[in-house]
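[audit] Reproducing an earlier prediction to check determinism. Same input, same settings, fresh worker. If the tokens differ from the archived copy the diff job will pick it up downstream; this log only records the rerun itself.
[audit] input (144 residues):
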Amino acid sequence: MHVAVGIISNGDLVFLRFSGRQSVRKTLNGLEAMRALPDYRPGLPELVDLSGVTETDMDFHGMRRISHEVGSQGISAIRKKMIAVYAPQDTLFGMARMFATLTELHQGNVRAAAFRTEVDSLAWLGRTETRFIDIPGFTFVGQD
């Protein structure tokens, strides 16, 4: 699995693109890479793109582990951290909804939601763009 991570839109949006086979360990590695970015701040909104994921071995317990990790990093955020997950395929959309629900149940300061379209993902984050490619700096993240 490949994870492309970058801070785009003049430093006010984290973008994560997962592709290939997705697992709990690889997802956690992606979160570590995100936190290691020089300009990363815990309160930055995140846009997660799962459209390139071809396979997953995630289950409820793995999703709980990931949501706990995400919820824990949001505790230090001054404002509520917003995470939009773009998951156009049915199975991944269901997993993204489970993630959003579990994240909201955590004691952290994170709100997550799952979307089937790019435009809905962006609108939920308060963005005016209708496609990811329209976000300033998007090409920085690297295309597969």
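[audit] rerun output stored. Observation attached for the diff report: The helical segments are 24-35, 60-74, 90-105, 118-124.
[audit] end
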